[in-house]
Design goal:
Blueprint: E1 6-11, H1 17-30, E2 35-40, E3 54-62, E4 65-66, H2 68-81, E5 85-92, H3 100-117, E6 124-128, E7 130-132, H4 138-151, E8 160-162, H5 166-177
Parallel strand pairs: 1-2, 1-3, 3-5, 5-6
Antiparallel strand pairs: 3-4, 7-8
Helix pairs in contact: 1-5, 2-3
Amino acid sequence: MGRMGSVLIIYASNHGHSRKIAERLASILAARDLSAQVHEVAKGDSFDPGPFDSVIVMASIHAGRHQAKMAHWVEANAEQLNRKRTAFVSVSLSAGSGVPDVLEENRGYAEAFAEKTGWTPGRIEIVAGCLQYPAYNILNKFLMKRIAKRQGLPLDTSREYEYTDWDALEKFASSFWHPG
């Protein structure tokens, strides 16, 4: 496919960590003299990926599913996406565990998302997210604390715990930009 040129990084975020990852990806690609535009998908979004040479779609997993607004956008644009160099970055708190079964489960969620939307991403990347207690409402904080307890994660709800491997993200960006 040759040089990418312009890259759209389109993401869905519930508490802002996917935005942080998208912006970091954009800065990594910009450092390689690529034009990277970041766009947060909204419900009913009709943002056109047409003008971009490549597209990185990013969504986070919550209760085994990615955001519906991203699924709708991908479905609406699957035909265009399938003609471009693309990647799906699936963000998951549980990916931070590094447990092979958990990573495989996350990959399964990402593959199911792609299949359901009619899109065949050129690459699927699983990225660890962030336990963002301060950003959660009371119910989410309670639920996340229960999940954290089961997974042996920290329970201090006064702070965030970031699990994103920024070096791995840099390697992903480099290999997406220059495959092979």
